[in-house]
Write a structure and sequence with these properties.
The protein is of the alpha+beta class and 134 residues long. Helix content is 33%, strand content 12%. Strands 2-1-3 form a 3-stranded antiparallel sheet. β1 (48-53) and β2 (59-65) form a beta hairpin. α2 (37-44) runs antiparallel to α3 (66-74).
Length: 134
Amino acid sequence: RGDGGSPPVGTFSALWRRGEPVVVANAHARLRLDWTPHAFLRTFGPEPVEMIDCCESGCLVKSLTLAHFFRGYLLASCRPRVRGSGATQMLKLKDWPPKIHFRSKMPAYFADLMAALPFPEYTRHDGALNLASY
């Protein structure tokens, strides 16, 4: 085991070269901020968001906030209802945060995630071996 419970980077590199999947257990334990629905509700709740109603053939729902989403996630009785029928909507967030890079929208969460990622040379946005960084 390497730092933080991950296998040594040499082991990861060998598996990666062979195209084998790598699962890192307990990666969330390295996070320092609160990443729970409650934390996002407190921090970003009033923010308007777009959601997709999965039960109504992918209809876009624009009149809701992030608080609507997370309250419904936490408590089914708080989920928005379809006008007319009263059926519960099955919603998913559409591209949140929208049109804004995660790093600039949520800098503290971005820094926390980057610090917690295993094998940073491969997984961080600026990792030397991360092909997406070039």
